[in-house]
Amino acid sequence: MATAPAPFSLSASTVPARLRAAAVPAGARGRQPRRGRMVVRAKIREIFMPALSSTMTEGKIVSWAASEGDRVNKGDAVVVVESDKADMDVETFHDGIVAAVLVPAGESAPVGAPIALLAESEEEVPLALAKAKELSNGQPQQAAAPAPAEDALATPPPPPTPAAAPAPVSAGTKGIASPQAKNLAKQHRVDLAKVTGTGPYGRITPEDVEAAAGMQPKPKPAAASPAVAAPSAAAVPQAAVLPPVPGATVVPFTTMQAAVSKNMVESLAVPAFRVGYPIVTDKLDELYEKVKPKGVTMTVLLAKAAAMALAQHPVVNASCRDGKSFTYNSNINIAVAVAIDGGLITPVLQDADKLDIYLLSQNWKDLVKKARAKQLQPNEYSSGTFTLSNLGMFGVDRFDAILPPGQGAIMAVGASKPTVVADKDGFFSVKSKMLVNVTADHRIVYGADLAAFLQTFAKIIEDPESLTL
Amino acid sequence: MQSTAAVSVSASAITSGSGARSEAARRPGGLRVCGLRREALACSSLRISQAPARLAVARAAAAAATNGAVAGSGGFDYDLVIIGAGVGGHGAALHAVEEGLKTAIIEGDVVGGTCVNRGCVPSKALLAVSGRMRELHDEHHMKSMGLQVSSTGYDRQAVADHANNLASKIRSNLTNSMKSLGVDILTGVGTIVGKQRVRYGKVGFPDKEITARNIIIATGSTPFVPKGIEIDGKTVFTSDHALKLESVPDWIAIVGSGYIGLEFSDVYTALGSEVTFVEALDQLMPGFDPEIAKLAQRVLINPRKIDYHTGVFASKITPAKDGKPVLIELIDAKTKEHKETLEVDAALIATGRAPFTKGLGLENINVVTQRGFVPVDERMRVMDADGNVVPNLFCIGDANGKLMLAHAASAQGISVVEQISGRDHILNHLSIPAACFTHPEISMVGLTEPQAREKADKEGFEISVVKTSFKANTKALAENEGDGIAKLIYRPDTGEILGVHILGLHAADLIHEASNAIALGTRLQDIKFAVHAHPTLSEVLDELFKAAKLQPREERGSKPSQPPQPLLKALSFITALLSSSIRDRQR
């Protein structure tokens, strides 16, 4: 470590983690007179293993820059400590003489354990040495003591128990443990001698150590499944009570159909209501004709319009997850229902309010292609915050949709049809008009909210220039 | 005085506005000065001879057309016969054809040798798989980049096939490249029967004899297996078997923690195995710069399912049989006392490689191998038992043991061809880079820090070290791969690069800027002005070059042992011209 001028700026980062050398006997914080001869109190300070990173539980002494008997000044690097991340120079906060090195270079000590004693003056060196002896004799009791004794060592390491040291020894003589089992044993402070191996040739496996440490890696999904099963169990009887129909063909649900079924049943628990709104689409149709050659579809235009309206009415983009609160989504992700072979899927146009229609169209094309190939990733169909369902292309003039779980609202769009319209001056004209119907969760979205949202949506559709911005 | 003039020119070019600097750098005059000054400074300590630049394409084409058609000159069947068609032999053969030599290559096994068939090439295929597995498994890493991966798995046979297919592809590429140039590929085991005479054929029946003006031995090496270790190819095996990936054991002991062991630990842990290293020396990765080895241990060993025993020999290894696992007896490397017996599912012996030089007929020409290695001088000329050069006989690659790396063998081969074409050439081995393809990779060129310090003490100069972290590199951070450091060891007085060591993303590809600088004698004061695209990993090296602090030039100029006078005069003349023109420009 002779590379003093090394430009590696690690030492700078050690500054906040600099070791604390607190006064052991009195804990007096005031500065002592420079000349310690007259000092009445014995000043022997312990130098502790510092916590150099948040994950560090023990450190290895790489080298001592100061050796026993050396006089050190506040700010001197006295020891180089190897943490789980890097080697760092550790400085002392006090002047003094290194009286005794408790942990020699090459050995490890838990964070917070004393690694050396610093005496204020020559006179205190013998005292310190005596204390060192005391410490090394009383190692077992000492190991537990220092952690609570020190007021604030900042890090919350578990009380340092020197279990790590005996572990490898016992591993060699008794049961054979795999490398990862040994790593885990050290990490979780498990005594390998007490672990029964279940691996090949009676070997201790990582799973054995985890079990011994009280970790249950498997039970987690097992514990989760009853919770999931409960609502479905409640739902199943309704379907199951119907007697079988003689002569009928029974086709079990595919996974997707089962998921749809489950979602639909779950939606019954949500108090939903519906609000409809007629919207004139002449200008939208005009715009559509213009952007169609650029690959923009009506679906994308509607999704974009909905997203822009949602940006102004965040509550419609929210959801109610626990029956007690609003969950406002940070993104506006428009899920669009797509009928695919044997079911229905809702690819999601993420951040539909932020992306322009051309980018959205590109995304949409990719999503549809993936959906058809059944290659959508979970986040591509489950991250929607608002759903759009359009049956207009079939000539449906109006319908209402069922609210999917986890969303606040769903929009059902009917076909745009030429309709005779009377304006406020009583003039008749023929305009294309479509009916939009939104289903929402009344726990969070109220009638006026939805109406206001629809009004905004209608304004965007009726003056669609903003869609192309 | 004159040299200080040169100094002040470049200093002014540096300190004046950036516009002026780039102007000066772009001017042909400025470049010429750079080159001259470099040579002037380099010639005192640099010992490589640089191959003169030449247009060889036309000659190569002509040679390719004639090779094989015309008999070798001087009554020899061939100008050059190479025994062993590994990477070393291949490199030599290609260069020989380029030089217009009628060339034959003798191969007793498969073209491509260890590297292509049982070494670098298939192992890179496995490491490519392990790298991806590692990425996909690192959920935390993926999540931090916003990616979700549901589940990952692998098909062992498909992975093994990938490695095998790659090897066959490279093998056929190699064969075709030699065939198309007209190199005669002779099948059989080659034996030297006398001066400039080689016999080849099936083992034990070398029935065909040819004469050659020059002979290169390039027979390579095989895995070294210490005594006491029983290889069964299934549970106790060498890299030869491991590359076939016939199984992925739950727990594998790797004996030896050099390049081979380290790379395999990367593959096996990525595929789900647990690994135990057995290393005879006190430190893992003994060949590496200590600082790099230490960080490598933190990045490549400690967080993985790996443990290790250092300072121990595997005195006896018994393959799994009769319902018993593989047993490895460990003894203390110093006291030879029995320490422990490991029970594992498999053991990979990666204790290095032994030269493959048996049956070469070296006894016919009074050459005695040293631990199997063919003794050579710095020009790869084979030395006989009396320490004299055997004329027209060379040995390159693993068989001479100078630097057991595929590309070193090839470079040695090219160096030999240069010599037999009448141009003296000595390969600077310190400019040959080495790489370990773990994730992240490790690479190095030149001296390690302890080696450099030793040399500095001996020769009485100072060295400096600068380091930089991949955490300071934009591209590395974008990739979320900030683990790693790069380290430069150099002479602050001359600006000579002594060694560069890199651990980090794509380290193996990054090292060449440094190795080329060493090979060409480029000084830090020059290379630090070279521009690197932003943001790229190459800026890691840029950072190093720029961080290197050099002693002030005046000090160096006043040293008595600096550039020879004639060069200095030429230099000062050109710089005088240049400085006046710069002044004109600035006006």
UniProtKB/TrEMBL annotation, chain A:
<dbReference type="InterPro" id="IPR003016">
    <property type="entry name" value="2-oxoA_DH_lipoyl-BS"/>
</dbReference>
<feature type="region of interest" description="Disordered">
    <location>
        <begin position="133"/>
        <end position="188"/>
    </location>
</feature>
<feature type="compositionally biased region" description="Low complexity">
    <location>
        <begin position="139"/>
        <end position="154"/>
    </location>
</feature>
<dbReference type="InterPro" id="IPR011053">
    <property type="entry name" value="Single_hybrid_motif"/>
</dbReference>
<dbReference type="InterPro" id="IPR004167">
    <property type="entry name" value="PSBD"/>
</dbReference>
<dbReference type="GO" id="GO:0009534">
    <property type="term" value="C:chloroplast thylakoid"/>
</dbReference>
<keyword id="KW-0450">Lipoyl</keyword>
<dbReference type="InterPro" id="IPR036625">
    <property type="entry name" value="E3-bd_dom_sf"/>
</dbReference>
<dbReference type="InterPro" id="IPR000089">
    <property type="entry name" value="Biotin_lipoyl"/>
</dbReference>
<feature type="compositionally biased region" description="Pro residues">
    <location>
        <begin position="155"/>
        <end position="165"/>
    </location>
</feature>
<feature type="domain" description="Lipoyl-binding">
    <location>
        <begin position="44"/>
        <end position="119"/>
    </location>
</feature>
<keyword id="KW-0809">Transit peptide</keyword>
<dbReference type="InterPro" id="IPR045257">
    <property type="entry name" value="E2/Pdx1"/>
</dbReference>
<protein>
    <recommendedName>
        <fullName>Dihydrolipoamide acetyltransferase component of pyruvate dehydrogenase complex</fullName>
        <ecNumber>2.3.1.-</ecNumber>
    </recommendedName>
</protein>
<feature type="domain" description="Peripheral subunit-binding (PSBD)">
    <location>
        <begin position="176"/>
        <end position="213"/>
    </location>
</feature>
<comment type="similarity">
    <text>Belongs to the 2-oxoacid dehydrogenase family.</text>
</comment>
<keyword id="KW-0808">Transferase</keyword>
<dbReference type="Pfam" id="PF00198">
    <property type="entry name" value="2-oxoacid_dh"/>
</dbReference>
<dbReference type="Pfam" id="PF02817">
    <property type="entry name" value="E3_binding"/>
</dbReference>
<dbReference type="InterPro" id="IPR001078">
    <property type="entry name" value="2-oxoacid_DH_actylTfrase"/>
</dbReference>
<dbReference type="InterPro" id="IPR023213">
    <property type="entry name" value="CAT-like_dom_sf"/>
</dbReference>
<keyword id="KW-0012">Acyltransferase</keyword>
Automatic annotation (TrEMBL), chain B:
<keyword id="KW-0560">Oxidoreductase</keyword>
<keyword id="KW-0520">NAD</keyword>
<dbReference type="InterPro" id="IPR036188">
    <property type="entry name" value="FAD/NAD-bd_sf"/>
</dbReference>
<dbReference type="InterPro" id="IPR006258">
    <property type="entry name" value="Lipoamide_DH"/>
</dbReference>
<dbReference type="InterPro" id="IPR012999">
    <property type="entry name" value="Pyr_OxRdtase_I_AS"/>
</dbReference>
<feature type="binding site">
    <location>
        <position position="124"/>
    </location>
    <ligand>
        <name>FAD</name>
    </ligand>
</feature>
<feature type="domain" description="Pyridine nucleotide-disulphide oxidoreductase dimerisation">
    <location>
        <begin position="432"/>
        <end position="543"/>
    </location>
</feature>
<keyword id="KW-0150">Chloroplast</keyword>
<feature type="active site" description="Proton acceptor">
    <location>
        <position position="534"/>
    </location>
</feature>
<comment type="function">
    <text>Lipoamide dehydrogenase is a component of the plastidial pyruvate dehydrogenase complex (PDC).</text>
</comment>
<keyword id="KW-0547">Nucleotide-binding</keyword>
<keyword id="KW-0274">FAD</keyword>
<dbReference type="GO" id="GO:0009570">
    <property type="term" value="C:chloroplast stroma"/>
</dbReference>
<dbReference type="Pfam" id="PF02852">
    <property type="entry name" value="Pyr_redox_dim"/>
</dbReference>
<feature type="binding site">
    <location>
        <position position="279"/>
    </location>
    <ligand>
        <name>NAD(+)</name>
    </ligand>
</feature>
<feature type="binding site">
    <location>
        <begin position="219"/>
        <end position="221"/>
    </location>
    <ligand>
        <name>FAD</name>
    </ligand>
</feature>
<dbReference type="InterPro" id="IPR004099">
    <property type="entry name" value="Pyr_nucl-diS_OxRdtase_dimer"/>
</dbReference>
<dbReference type="GO" id="GO:0045252">
    <property type="term" value="C:oxoglutarate dehydrogenase complex"/>
</dbReference>
<keyword id="KW-0809">Transit peptide</keyword>
<feature type="binding site">
    <location>
        <position position="190"/>
    </location>
    <ligand>
        <name>FAD</name>
    </ligand>
</feature>
<comment type="similarity">
    <text>Belongs to the class-I pyridine nucleotide-disulfide oxidoreductase family.</text>
</comment>
<dbReference type="GO" id="GO:0050660">
    <property type="term" value="F:flavin adenine dinucleotide binding"/>
</dbReference>
